[in-house]
Amino acid sequence: MRYLTIVLSMICVVCHPIKAQTDDETLLANYKLKKLVMVGRHGVRSASLTKSERRITPHTWHKWREGDGQLTERGAILEQQMGHYFREWLRKMGLFVEEDSQHAADCYVYANSMPRTVDTAVNFLAGFMPGAGIDVNYNKNVAFGSMDDVFKDGSSIASNYFIAKVKAEAESACGEGGFAAVMDSLENDAKVLSQLLDMDVSPACQHGDTCSFDFSGAYIYLHKSWMPRIAGGNIYLAQMAASDCLLQYYDIPDTEHGLFGHELSDEDIIRVGHIKDMWIWLSMGMPSIGKDIAHHLLVKLRDVLEDDEHHFAYLVGHDSNMSSLTGALNILPYVLPGTPEIKTPLGGKLVFEIWENQDGDTLARVRYVYQSLDQIRNLESLSLDNPPSSYPLAIRGQQPNSDGLYPWRDVLTLIHDAINDYATLDDPLPNDVNLDEVVDMLDVVDIVKFVLKQPFLHFYQPQADVDGDGMISVRDALQLMNIISGFPKKR
To answer: How big, in percent rounded to 5, are the helix, strand and coil portions of the chain?
Structure first.
């Protein structure tokens, strides 16, 4: 299937240039692979719209053999194929060269205590090291089917300051036009989804309920212990419907049936996926909310990366975990090619590789490995000759070498810092008016703009009352200038 380039106006990120991924032969010639750790999203699952929500289309949804939200037969096969590929690749890289049974103790697998995540891990191992007896670990102290804290998706912070901070990060991440421009682009995508569902002649519409998708007034909603979300209108229903449409399209080889009798262009399929992926990214992919939600996962990731017992580890969670983890680790914005799920594709793996060069220096590569839409729909066998897609990820503020590898110490420090930042996420930096974690002249400028009623990008009013008199005036700007004294004050 031919994929169209995603127009920048459709997405809320500026794509940063990334070094081409180094080929295996170059890596083998110059480095030795020491360890590989993956964090993955479960494989293809059954849909999860409720009976009443399915009334938004007159068409009959795919009848899944599995229960709601369970790993499907296709999902199981695809995970086995992914496991088989990694087995071949790790053997080629020289990490596992003996019989599988000799390496079983070198491997550690931990899944969320949900059926689809445990089943994903079981099927991955069936292709990775069949019969080796590797256990799938999960938290047996919580009821099976409940969320493990390691993979939680609820915020632990919901103060006014924290909400303002997350919204400011989203505005910056969305680029020109900010959050509002992204919502406009999603409205255009929603028209495609609405036409795919034929919502205007649906039972829901005929009964005076939902006839179209409306994202007006959308905003980031945070509530303590709840999953962060984009609220407003019926955007939550839209992203759920988009997800279920993609699941149906993945699982049904018959394109016409999979798309309710419609013929969608490549661009239209991308638009449907865009709704779901941008919703999850904006909800959970900002740095501060990522450090909150992914805190326990970051601790788990640090522990398996640092332990000397295992040379391979696989942590299996959900798209919320993938999004929050990449946000917490300051991964630069990316758009994955070859898939309508441009951020967190089903079955995708966030891969951390630890390498050693000929001088004994330790380096790391970070990449996203996932199956393309063609590989999913055609159930293509994966091998070294037909590998899954692999996309190198760039880390903000860090510079890789010519082979795309980062100093391992820098990557590990990044993980430690993200963990330690959790304690101060709700601790405002005094006078940080624009919430960029630096007190400098930009904060002074924003105070002046506020006083003159000029537009500004971010402004957190409680931080701008420098003299504490309950009002924002030029005196606050002058006092802040005196505090700064020409030198930025960082946390």
So the answer is: 45, 15, 45
Q: Which residues have CB under 8 Å from 370's CB, separation 6+?
A: 336, 339, 345, 347, 348, 349, 388, 389, 391
Distance CA(456)–CA(449), nearest Å, equals: 7
d(CA 172, CA 178): 7
Question: Residue by residue, what is the 3-state secondary structure of 160-209?
Answer: HHHHHHHHHHHHHHCCCCHHHHHHHHHHHHHHHHHHHHCHHHCHHHHCCC
> Please, are residues 275 and 190 in contact by the beta-carbon 8 Å criterion?
yes
CA gap 338, 389 in Å, rounded: 8
User: What is residue 393's three-state secondary structure?
Assistant: coil
Q: 3-class SS at 364?
A: strand
User: Tens of pLDDT along 237-270?
Assistant: 999 999 999 999 998 877 666 788 888 888 999 9
Tokens of 59: 């068409």
Enumerate residues 6+ apart whose C-beta is below 8 A from 179: 12, 167, 170, 171, 220, 282
In 3-state terms, what secondary structure has residue 306? helix
The angle, 0 to 180 degrees and rounded to 10, between the axes of the packed helices 160-173 and 178-197 is 80
pLDDT in tens, 116-142: 999 999 999 999 999 899 999 999 999
| Inter-residue contact 322 to 350 (CB < 8 Å) | yes
Among 33, 43, 30, which Cα is nearest to 371's? 43
Spatial distance between the Cα atoms of 44 and 187, rounded to a whole number of angstroms:
26
Q: Which amino acid would we find at residue 423? A: A
Phi-psi region of 352 (alpha: psi -120 to 50; beta: other; left: phi over 0): beta
pTM, full prediction: 0.89
Determine how many CB atoms are found less than 10 A away from the CB of residue 273: 22
Query: What is the number of other CB atoms lying within 10 angstroms of the CB of residue 197?
Result: 25
